[in-house]
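Researcher: Can you fold this with calcium ion in place?
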Amino acid sequence: MGILERGAATSYFVHVRTGEARRRTVRASWLLLPLVVVSVGLISMAALVAANEPAANTTLVVAAVGVVSIVAVVVTWLEARHFGRRLRTTIDELSVTQSDLRQLLDDLPDAVIGLDERGKISSANGKAAALTGRSVDDLIGRGFLSMIGEADRKSVSERWQRVDLGNRVPAVHAGVRSPGDLAVFELVDVNGEPHLVEASLHVSQSDHGNVVLLRDVSDRKRTTAALEQARRRFQQAFHSAPTGMALVRLDDGRIVDANQPLAQMLGRPLDDMLGQPIRTMTHPEDLASAARQRAQLELGIADSYALEQRYLRADGEYVWARTRVSVTEDEGVALAITHIEDITEQRRNAELLTHAATHDDLTDLPNRTTLVGRLDALLAVAQPGQVAVLFIDLDNFKMVNDSLGHGVGDQLLREVARRFRGVMRDSDRLARFGGDEFVVFVERVAIGGEDTPSGAFVDPAAVADRLRRSVMEPITIDGHELVVTASIGFAVNAATDLTADDLLRDADAAMYRAKAAGRDRVEAFTAATRKASVGALQLASELRRAIERHEIVPYFQPIVDLSSGEVVSFEVLARWLHPDRGLLMPAEFLPAVEAGGLLVDFGAMMLRDSLAQLARWRAAGTRFRRCGLSVNVATQQLADSNFIDVVQTALGETGIDADSLWLEITETTLMEDSVAAGSALRELRGLGLHIAVDDFGTGYSSLTYLKRFPVETIKIDRSFVSGLGLEADDTSIVEAVVRLGHSLGLSVVAEGVETPLQLTRLRELQCDNGQGYLFGRPRPAALVEYERV
Ligand code: C2E
Ligand code: CA
Ligand code: CA
């Protein structure tokens, strides 16, 4: 009920309290009619009587008139009663309607105020009373404008005046209103509290005043303000967010709004993005998953989602972004609020970390863990006989590393890895296991299969040989030309239940056979290989017993002064007098002694036993009185902190003077840990004994390097001496070593002198001492005593 009929409202407000009085007035007016009729009858009768005066007739006429009058009075009275009753009913009905109307007005959501032509309140409903805090009686007669807040009063007044005038024209419907004029202003209640109201003025065409409908909109205003503020805040958050944001229509995927960080991230002007389907900026591979997620939003299955996807930059590059999408609605349009956070860097870091964890950082090859994982996965599904594992170990790498430094060693490993990769079909199957060990696994293996890049089946031996040959070509690093060789062992998955570890162990065992067989070769794992490694284990426990029982004994080989031909010393060389297998050479048992961790005990035994032998010779007054002993010392012995005590004790127990003892340390031992070796040697030298460098020339050390150690003698390796006088290279090396050695104050021993020619050449070169079969083989002590030197 937007527009109220002014007449009805006014009559109700004005007369509602005078209804009873009015009813009484109506009843009185209806009694007036019969009284008038009776009076007229009586007056006519009296006039007739006065004019004619016939006495007899007069009585009759009077009677008749009287009767007529009475009848008239009765009829009139009856009629009046009837009307009176109808009137009462009507009035009652009217009262009911009025109270209904009052109820209705009070039930209205709006306050209704009637104004007279002077703008004073002539009527008001309950809501108006509640709104203003005043009673209806208090309101009546009050000037409406006076209740309007001061700030709004003037403008409302002016405005309503205009409306009032403008509308006071002949109405379409008689006596009825304007369509109402809306105004919002503050209405002050009885306590002085302002209420924001929305008011509509309804102007009557008559001059009887107007009706104002008022609605308290403080709450609505507050809500709208809050909404507006929320919208503003969203806008602000959206545009000042540090991450990329876009508002995307769910129905067609078009970008409705986007912020500057997103524009920057994608390298596109903001305006170009608006209206574009976000699909055109999404990586093709990520479209499907994004669409699937958005569909869930549209269907209401989910109200948000997050995923990592790539967006296309204007320059054609892709950025990885974490995208979080939630739905909102704006004026009936479902929108996806899309947060787009650039995680390209993060992902790159994560990838780098993963790569670092799974790869060897020197060669960038997969590491051991990665390879074992891949191999296990492959073995789980592979048929027996189809997978081969190749174990590669570089020969003499340690020497390069120790003599030329880790920098060169690292470069060498990188180059070797590069070469291996170059001859692999799939370099993912190549891994560095640490140090100079590499492992390769090969699928679709067939012994004797073709070794071509397209070969359906490959022969693991052929692959291994290809790898071996790939490193043979000399490698030049920092001006050093290095020749590297590789020993390779391989094993094939002979059964279904083999694990990566099993195959690696077998390939490793085969690789050791390749080393033992002379290095730079390929060996396949066979049942015999396993037997040999089992045999090696048994050997270790046998060895322990052998050392305890002195089954391993010193043999003695003379070292001769080349100018005088006198024996100056004996080198002590170990032999195992095995109860079942007969005489065993160091090469047959020393690796097991080392592997069994028995080198220190074994070395101590050799030292004691040989010194004890020398002491016996001296005591017996043989011609070896003035001879010294050369005892080989392994790296582990030298590294052992007790070694000096062992030496001292052995010397003390046997009574041999330290000056008679030479310790032979290999060139490689010196280089393995030069600092520790240096200090250990200085301590030993402090006892008064002598140090010789063994196998000189097989490592990469120089004579000048040797000067760091308290070394007095160098022993030129047999391999150089054997070509002496025959091979120009060998001759010049020996010559250079002798000359340089002498210039540094070192004495030189030539090992492996077998022929008179070699002896002649060595004498010409003025080499100090010689050792070799020419002078005598290593012999047991008992035989040495009879040796004719
Ligand atoms: P090495 O210290 O270089 O010993 C010299 C080797 O050359 C000995 O081999 C010796 O028998 C051999 N030899 C000597 N003259 C000739 C010759 O004219 N022609 C040929 N072809 N060979 C000759 P052996 O006894 O088999 O010892 C091998 C290696 O085992 C030794 O090489 C040494 O490194 C090691 N070794 C032997 N005994 C011991 C020991 O008691 N302790 C340690 N730590 N190592 C030992
Ligand atoms: Ca030696
Ligand atoms: Ca030697």
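Model: Folded with calcium ion in place. The radius of gyration is 62 Å.
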